[in-house]
Amino acid sequence: MDEEIADQTAAINMEQEPVEEPSKNALKKANKQKKLAEEKANKSATNTTKEAARSEAKKLIGYGISQACDDGNAKQGITSIDVAKDEDFSAWYQQTLTKGDFLDYYDVSGCYILKPASWFIWEQIRDWFDLRIKKVGVRNCAFPLFVSEEVLQREKAHIEGFAAEVAWVTHAGSAKLDKKIAIRPTSETVMYPYYAKWIRSHRDLPLRLNQWNSVVRWEFKNPTPFLRTREFHWQEGHTAYLTQEDASKEVLQILEFYAGVYEELLAVPVIRGRKTDKEKFAGGDYTTTVEGYIAATGRGIQGGTSHHLGQNFSKMFGISVEDPSAKEGEKKAAINVFQNSWGLSTRTIGVMVMTHGDDRGLVVPPRVSEIQVVIVPVGITAKSSEDERTSLHKQVDALEEILKAENIRVEADKRGYSPGWKFNDWEMRGVPLRLEFGPKDSAAHCVTTSRRDIEGNDGKGTIQITELAAGVKSLLSSIQKDLYGRADKVFKDHTKTITSWDDFVPALNDKNVCLIPHCLTEKCEDEIKEMSARTDSDEVVDEKAPAMGVRTFSEPILALTLKKECLL
Amino acid sequence: MDEEIADQTAAINMEQEPVEEPSKNALKKANKQKKLAEEKANKSATNTTKEAARSEAKKLIGYGISQACDDGNAKQGITSIDVAKDEDFSAWYQQTLTKGDFLDYYDVSGCYILKPASWFIWEQIRDWFDLRIKKVGVRNCAFPLFVSEEVLQREKAHIEGFAAEVAWVTHAGSAKLDKKIAIRPTSETVMYPYYAKWIRSHRDLPLRLNQWNSVVRWEFKNPTPFLRTREFHWQEGHTAYLTQEDASKEVLQILEFYAGVYEELLAVPVIRGRKTDKEKFAGGDYTTTVEGYIAATGRGIQGGTSHHLGQNFSKMFGISVEDPSAKEGEKKAAINVFQNSWGLSTRTIGVMVMTHGDDRGLVVPPRVSEIQVVIVPVGITAKSSEDERTSLHKQVDALEEILKAENIRVEADKRGYSPGWKFNDWEMRGVPLRLEFGPKDSAAHCVTTSRRDIEGNDGKGTIQITELAAGVKSLLSSIQKDLYGRADKVFKDHTKTITSWDDFVPALNDKNVCLIPHCLTEKCEDEIKEMSARTDSDEVVDEKAPAMGVRTFSEPILALTLKKECLL
Fold first, then answer.
1. Nearest-CB residue to A75 (from B106, B141, B200)
2. CB of B140 less than 8 A from some CB of A
3. Residue-wise over A104-114: b if at least 16 C-beta within 10 A, else e?
4. Average pLDDT taken over every residue of chain B
5. pLDDT reported for residue A24
């Protein structure tokens, strides 16, 4: 599948450098920040022994972006996102992910470490989606990571889309393998020879398999965490039907589940659409997609794709059954099965971060946040007695227990840092709701609440302790709803229907998604892309795929507005 | 970790050939079976068009073992396991897995397709284990598949254990990479440079991460499905503690969870133990293990390992914190953290199959079986009217609904095959409970039950329809309990305490696990292995690791009986 590939809508020009080469700008910022942190540092001196022991390890993994984001000393002071989202979106995205503890850079370029807070979100998506596909009859399985060269190259149009990015294993230990072996870039050709073997009768249909795995596409340009990575995690569904009608129904059923992941879990609005032939999945009949909108860049972004493969692969791989409608005694014709494939990746998490994150860092919707509520004890000063501290911590523990009992994912932060430091830390991590609890709250039998999604006093409130669980649940539910509502308004406000060419490029430059009439010929599509691209001569164009790097419109949305006449 | 490696106890001499080279014997059997099936086939002729279209695909994936197991024509007749478990264990295991629809062979040797029924079991294990480790504070994450050569080779003793089996990626597309990149054989060296970066203070401890992934060890000899495969799925936990005491506690806590997976889910008894120094994980301090017993071979089998790594890796990778117990003003010494790693793989499924499977195929414990109950309509003959058939099927649907409503995983089999064919099919697949329902049952308001784990009339019974759900639940619970009970009795009956050398080899030859006094020196260990090996000169010895291929005793059990005196 083309989750990370034929992806012009994701061309948001994330120009950050890979970890090996931090930009001069980033280094300057890092140094400035480090200095600041050192001044603020309330600890005396760097432990040189420790640093020495660690330096070798640091060398091994490269010490690039991490300098800018997570220096040991900086941690003693207040670390924060030091670039605004609308100022340098790429740098903001990097910092938000690393300082928010979602991700770390890795010493193999284009690969990233997904830390527990982001992996938890992927697990939520998995469980939600898995429940739904299993209910409709899809079964999970596991095909191997490896595929032989011969099998990989079976479907020509398909492999052309991936050939340049296939990682090859040529050696095991010190021995050279007889034949090099590919790491799957997607599993159509891995699985379909076995579909040919397993599907022997119409009784074996539909065959609906899915797997949660990782695939490898060795992209050489501009890796971007979650959006464009050399190894990425996803699910890939592969199904076979007797009739095109049934297969087509499934394509949309799955697309609706993908929309649900975005809308219900991640609070991200998406548009369901169909790609143009030029942009569809290589080897398939047509591609449907859910597309989001990143306000900061004004670009559409591909969210997940559900493909109808028609009989292209089934003919190549000889997947057929006898026509069950043939009458007794008639020669039973062989019918090639109709196939779909569909994939949703950890890209979902990147889209979520870009949609909701702000200048203070991550903002995570409650339904997918590993920690939904953090409780921070406040009002304890140097003058407070040990008894006062102990008593407050005990009460905080009790509050935590009340919420845990209601299956709210809560953490009481009793670490030895100041409340201000903690507030900032949890804000960077995007925890949706903070409860503050001090002697004054205790006396008033309430907790102070602070919503992550609304800054300042507008996001503050109190809940009586007697109504703690219900109050927290209600707030979490409001946060989830409001995050979606705000993103949806922004998306709608930036969706323009354009009927004249003169309005088109200005609308794009105003960060809009444009609905246009279009004849759907490839010639016009290319021309529109080229002409809109020219307005952005200062932008970096991806050499590998010139049509993808330009500021262009979203094909799926275009396809939705299918009309015979054309903007050109 | 050494899940699939330093694994003398798994030396059950599975001598089956890889898929590329089906043995002459297997081919002979296959042909014989094919002929029989063709004779029995109630369909007229092979559809040659279909076969032609498929033949190309068959060539691609190799058409070895599949011929023996799953030929298209064979499916029309009764397919069954055509070799007894105690006659040719290796062939029995192969057939049981493929005909039971757990697994298919793959055209990259040593890699296998885990089909939905076996993958479902792995998901059950994952959910069960995940719940428990999360409860005690472990968090999941995802580190990359790849590791650079430099990082991989950091810990010498460790890499020595894996070097010969590491798969290397050298090319991407047609481009040669500057530096070759390894596919992780396990993730110690992948993760620990980052532990050094992330762990900055004792406040960051314990750090407890886990991942569910696959790793690659390119073994060159005797691949065996689930037990010894080039890619395998597992979880790997990696944790760091301030004190050895806390780390050691975790080692046993995890080991107990592993035992729980076997005992509670898979109904397989295991012994908890500790490996000798010779057999421990390369680079670690000590290795604990759960070990099962395969009665058919009389061998112990490693089930899962939980290692204490001590400070070996933390010294290598510079993972340290300042001593928090240092007094104010004192120089704070750097303490290297104490680490554990622990892994449990899909090998669990192989052990389960070997333990419970019988001459009719798989036997799957109810708790992990994808389908717990199958309902087969019976008593419909050629003479029955269409109304009678429809009416029976409706009643069967109603029974299915009753059980589904109680969250019992049930399937009504209304396919167009004979009841006998279906009985056999579901028995091969190991579905724990079959309900038969025909006009006679309907008239008597009951269903006929047939337990997979008890053959013939002893396993039969009836349940009144009014008590269907309760009756089925009770039966499933009995089956789970009885499977464990029987396996446990066999294990206990074959566990012998031996105090004289003269009794030792005969006891081993009688398929016993032996508890012996031992001084725990490596010299004696080697001698005992060598001397016991000599008794089996006709067995194939694994050239790569001579000490592992012989019929030997189980180290962990030996270690459990630690005494100063020695059998030698």
1. B200
2. yes
3. bbbbbbbbbbb
4. 84
5. 45
* HSE value, Cβ hemisphere, 13 Å, CA-based, for A454: 17
- pLDDT of residue B417 exceeding 60, the answer is yes
Residues on chain B touching A122 (C-beta within 8 angstroms)? 142
C-alpha–C-alpha distance, residues A274 and B183, integer Å: 37
A220, B172: Cβ pair inside 8 Å?
yes
Arithmetic mean of pLDDT over chain A: 84
Interchain proximity A146–B66, CB inside 8 Å: no
A221 touches chain B (CB under 8 A): no
pLDDT of residue B54: 59
Minimum distance, in Å, between the CA of residue B282 and any CA atom of chain A: 17
Distance CA B54, CA B493 (A): 51
pLDDT < 70: residue spans in chain A? 1-77, 533-568
| Higher-pLDDT residue of B517, A350 | A350
Does B334 contact chain A (CB < 8 Å)? yes
Distance in angstroms (rounded) separating the CA atoms of residues A300 and A89 = 15
The partner residue sitting opposite B60, judged by closest CB among A120, A150, A168, is A150
d(CA B166, CA B149): 10
- Give the Cα separation of B410 and B447 in Å (integer): 14
Residue showing tokens 């309902």: B375
pLDDT at B323: 92
Q: What six digits make up the tokens of A120?
A: 């938890």
Token readout for B396 is 């069967």
Q: Partners of A212 in the beta sheet? A: A235
Those of residues 269-328 in A touching chain B at CB distance below 8 A are 315, 317-322
Report pLDDT digits (tens) over B481-510.
999 999 999 999 998 888 888 888 888 888
Q: Which tokens sit at B48?
A: 């040659």
**Whole-number pLDDT of residue A33:** 55
Mark residue A298 as left, alpha or beta (left: phi above 0; alpha: psi -120 to 50; beta: remaining).
left
Which of A141, A183, A220 is facing B116, going by the closest CB pair? Answer: A141
pLDDT value at residue B242: 98
pLDDT at B58: 60
**A554 versus B313: which is more confidently predicted?**
B313
- Contact between chains at B144 and A72 (C-beta distance less than 8 A): no
B142 touches chain A (CB under 8 A): yes
Instruction: Please give the DSSP secondary-structure letter assigned to residue A306.
Output: E
Are A91 and A69 contacting, i.e. CB atoms less than 8 angstroms apart? Answer: no
**pTM for the model:** 0.87
- Which residues, 6+ apart, have CB-to-CB distance to A378 below 8 Å? A419, A436, A437, A438, A441
Beta strands A207-216 and A231-241 are antiparallel
State yes or no: pLDDT of B387 exceeds 50: yes
- Give the whole-angstrom CA distance, residue A229 versus residue A216: 8
Comparison of pLDDT for B142 and A301, the residue scoring more: B142
| Strand A286-294 to A271-274 pairing | antiparallel
Q: At residue B10, does pLDDT exceed 70?
A: no
Burial of A220 (0-12, 13-18, 19+ CB in 10 A): middle
What angle, 0 to 180 degrees and rounded to 10, lies between the N-to-C axes of helices A501-509 and A522-533? 50
Q: Do B169 and A165 touch (CB under 8 A)?
A: no
Beta strands in B206-353 (DSSP E): 207-216, 231-241, 271-274, 286-294, 299-310, 320-322, 334-336, 338-345
Going by pLDDT thresholds of 50, 70 and 90, the confidence category of residue B97 is very high
Strands (E), B184-260: 207-216, 231-241
Q: Give me the pLDDT at residue A56, please.
A: 60
Retrieve residue B241's tokens.
């503690």
Q: Is A60 on the interface with B (CB under 8 A)?
A: yes
**DSSP 8-class letter at B265:** I
Alpha helices per DSSP H over A19-114: 24-40, 48-61, 65-69, 89-99
CB contact under 8 A, A183 and B169: yes
